[in-house]
Design a protein that fits this description.
With 120 residues, the protein is an all-beta fold. The protein is built from no helices and eleven strands. The strands form two sheets. Strands 2, 4, 5, 6, 9, 10 and 11 form a seven-stranded mixed β-sheet that branches. Strands 1-3-8-7 form a four-stranded antiparallel β-sheet, with no helix packed on it. Strand 7 and strand 8 form a beta hairpin. The protein starts with a strand and ends with a strand. The model has no long low-confidence stretch (mean pLDDT 96).
Amino acid sequence: QVQLVESGGGLVQAGGSLRLSCAASGRYAMGWFRQSPGKEREFVAGISWGGGTTSYADSVKGRFTISRDDAKNTVYLQMNSLKPEDTAVYYCAATGYGVAPALAGRYGYWGQGTQVTVSS
């Protein structure tokens, strides 16, 4: 059974930074998604099994960076220049694909989510 545990969420002012962590029980291609009230879950960033391929939603390109530390089986999402519209519950997810797809349905395992709130 794959276990994913997120941490690092919180309250930050607009323009600030946060780093989310996702500790996994194994090594997988990983994605970060987010969901705010009344909206569908949306892809934020993904990183391949080997770490050589990353992808980002247009809304976060240039501000967010996904990375992984395979010695710790942990994936990170560094979020800079945060905006109020980044407020959401952030989820990490693991997939058996070699690269991280943008479709939530291609991920078989999900963390419990961590709240990120950006105040204006």
